[in-house]
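Box 3.1 A note on notation
Throughout this textbook, protein chains are presented in two layers. The first layer is the amino acid sequence; the second is a token string describing backbone geometry. Keep the layers aligned when reading.
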Amino acid sequence: DLDSAKLELKEFIPHVKNISDNSIRKMAGRDLARFKRFKNQGIAVKFGRFTQKENYQIQKNIEEFLLITGIENAEKLLFSYRYPEEQKTIQRLKTEHQFCEKLSEGIPRPWRLIYYRARKIYDPKNYKGKYSDEEKEKLLRYQARHGNDWKKISGMMSRSNQSLARKYSEIKSAVNYGPWSTEEVQKLVRAVKEVIRKRLEEEEADFLPSAESPSGDLLIEREKLYQNLPWTEIETQVGTRYWRQCKQKW
């Protein structure tokens, strides 16, 4: 049941309240048992940047799965919609040989994040270099027509979903690429402080300690100041920088 799943997942994912019910149901099936096994081994669930060791493990898992199933390459495995004539066969093999379990083997992270990382590693369209002015114009035009359907736009532009989403985030508004002004830094600090305070109110038990300093500032674990922050929301509040700039500056 959904409430029980939320309660159990909260032990491993403090921000579970911010996750949609549909995603929680999927995580309960794909991740909960894995998380418990990792806990018994004394291994904590991780978020943030993937390590080189984890990238190698993903590659190892993919290669082993290709050998087991006979699927020709990782692009067909991870982007089967690009091969409509083979898609049903690929999906059947993924189900029969438990693709979800095999891909996440040995990696203490939510399955969805592992899957997205694997797609980023193996997508040949993810390494096409700098966008031309013509591509930027096409991206804006297609997004206006199809919204954030990056899968569809990817097929039209031969760029990866992730690359298109990032580039659109960069060019969708007037963005400053020069040195940060004092005003911009102040906006960034206020935006981050606001989302952290909001999160603290929602999940007070997850922030230790939750007392205030003599100056009135909240005393929060250092990791909570930079892990899993809603950067697109912060981008909107800063206004003149895209989310990746905000994250790097912070």
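The longest helix spans residues 182-202. The radius of gyration is 21 Å.
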